[in-house]
Sequence to fold (696 residues):
Amino acid sequence: MPINSKLIKIASVLALLCSTTAHAELNVFACEPEYAALAQSLAPDAKVYSATTAMQDPHLVQARPSLIAKMRQADLVVCAGADLEIGWLPMLQMKASNNKVRSTDTGLFYAAEHTKTLDQIDNVDRSMGDVHAKGNPHLHFDPVKLLEVAKGLSAKFIQLDPSNTAAYETAFARFNEQWQAKIPVWQAQAKSLQGKKVIAYHSSFRYLFQWTGIEQVADLEPKPGLAPTSSHLATLLARAEKGDIMAIIVASYQDERGAKWLGDRANLPVLTLPMSVGGNEQSTDLISLYDNVLVLLNGVQ
Amino acid sequence: MSILKTPLSLVAIGCAFAPITVLAEDSSLTNPNISAVLDGYYQSGDRPMSERAEGFGLGETELAISANIDDMFYGKMTAVLASHDGETEVELEEAFIQTMGLPEGLSVRAGRFLSDVGYLNNQHLHTDSFADRPAAYRAFLGGHYFDDGLRVSIVAPTDIYWNLGFEAFKGDKMRAADEHGERDFSNIGVYSAFTKFGGDIGVDSSWQLGLAYLRNENGKLLGEEEDEHVDDEHDHGGHAHSAKYTGENTYIADFVYKWAPNGNYKYQHLTLSGEYFRVTDIFAMEEHDEHEHEAFSNNDYHQGWYVSSVYQFSPNWSAGLRYGQVDSYEAHGDHLDPQKLKETEFSVAWHHSHFSTVRLQYTNQQGTNFDGFENDNIITLQYVMTLGAHGAHQF
Fold:
């Protein structure tokens, strides 16, 4: 039966193809560079792609062809969640037609679902600006929360690729050990920042300020998502003239012009902090990102 | 009265869903998104083939509901309310389901939806940077071509984005004029095949190229010797989404290039785009008596193109420049008369937030042989605003 033997050959080739792809490295699509860095630490063999850089506002990303192509090939999509990517992720999911990364039961991971976010709101009204009902999504600047996320992400890797469980467990143990060792060091560095007052852009550093004890007394944005206006800056200048502000803080993807205008007039230092890994030369991974941010903050005191 | 009842019931459906969204933990993926678009304008003149008339008016007021139906299907409905001459018309612009769980990058869309040919066609009008679609769209696709049909498309697992799709549509809106209503039209009138490629150039720039072919079984206009004049069957000012100039074969090529400093779209970005249309096999003579239905065709074709450049120089301001033209033919009995339309347009838009836009647009139009047309300068002042849980935008 030549036909049957042909079929068997085809089937065995197919089986071989399938089994080789199953053992191939995982393709990870990260929405933001902090989650690309985290995924790489927890799955050193994975092929990790970051959809954005620390110079790009993750609220406003184009659902561009290259991202569709990357998501099409992904085994796992890792994002901050809490609606941070609501303006582009659903479009990518639809266009990429990749059924592996559509549900958090399988290859989709939202960091915000693995810890408790700050500032959750029951009723969202657009007059409040572009706010997130599910809380502030910029949660990677709280070391304790990030460790909770790491735990969840490691479990996700094991769920998707159980044959390499031991490797993922080893990688998590290493990350956990390094991170736990760093937390008291960072806390010591943050001690002198406690109670300091700053004016910042958006609520980008909400979590950083929360655990360092810095108080953000005003926002350069009149409402979340709206660019600084001159009338709003004038009220900030009046606030700054009270003389209790340490610095004006913007993230690496934010426009410095409003901050500089205010800084010049109020005689305050303007500090651009890396929003994520790659936000400046020193921030090459999550640990150096935290190190660098604390050095920069301590430098303006 | 049925005209009035329908929009009200649509609003009622919207309201019925609304409380669910507010209470929902995840309104984005598991519960309906409800959104509305408000569009109003004042215009100092008429553009040919446009739905916007001189004076005060409303554009397309849109109500959309979309959601994942289950883990396999996504569904969307978009109703458009348009008022013309004191009458409110409701039209379903989209009512489709799409598969979300097929393997190998495959997806199937069925129902009424926007065709994926060209660059602008699958985008909603309210995301445009100009008050009207380019003249080529108004001439050959009725502004934007949506229809009842089926689409199958596939995304290749490659680092360069590559998408391939096929569509079949009823095609009523794309039918050639049929003065006597005697013509035997095909039920499945329109087939299309399209492909798109795209990628990034460094971190600053992204691009996409598209090619499409559209076969219109009912697109060839059949002229008759005895007629003195084939009437323009499209009543001006009506809410006609029909293509004004058709042919059997349409070829479309499109490109878009976007640039933002560091790839950060929040503050500044540039969009360059352009499309070219060529519509062939547009006309045949039917000679009833001597040679039985021997149709003689000619080699004339319609064509149109535009290039557009839009720059957002701050989160609150953007400006755009667009030039486009259409070269088409109007049938008069047994012969075709050439027509030409050229549009040069400049628009400035103020965006108070991501959801509200006020636009001022200037159009210089020049043409020959368009019915009732005169060279003109037109000013349009327009607002476009979105309410509710608004879906993500396409590239």
User: Anything to note?
Assistant: Chain A has a mean pLDDT of 89. Strands of chain A lie at 27-30, 47-50, 76-79, 108-110, 197-200, 215-219, 245-251, 270-273.
